[in-house]
Amino acid sequence: MTEEMRTSTRDLGRLRDRMASWLAGRTGGPVDVSELSRPAANGMSSETVFFTASWPGRRHARCVARLAPAAEAVPVFPRYDLGAQFEVMRLARDRAGIPAPRALWFEPDPAPLGTPFFVMEREDGDVPPDVMPYTFEGWLLDAPPGRRRVLQDATVRLLAALHDAPFTREDLSVLSPTGVRPSRADERPSYGDERALGGGERPSYGGEGFAGDEGGGGVRGGGLRAHVDAQRAYYAWAHGDHPIPLLERAFGWLEAHWPDDPGPDVLTWGDARIGNVMYRDFRPVAVLDWEMAAVGPRELDLAWMIFLHRFFQDLTEAIGLPGLPDFMRGDDVCRTYQALTGHTPANMDFHLTYAALRHGVIMARVWRRRVHFGEQPMPDDPDDLVMHRSTLERMLEA
Question: Structurally, how many domains does the chain consist of?
Answer without folding.
Answer: 1
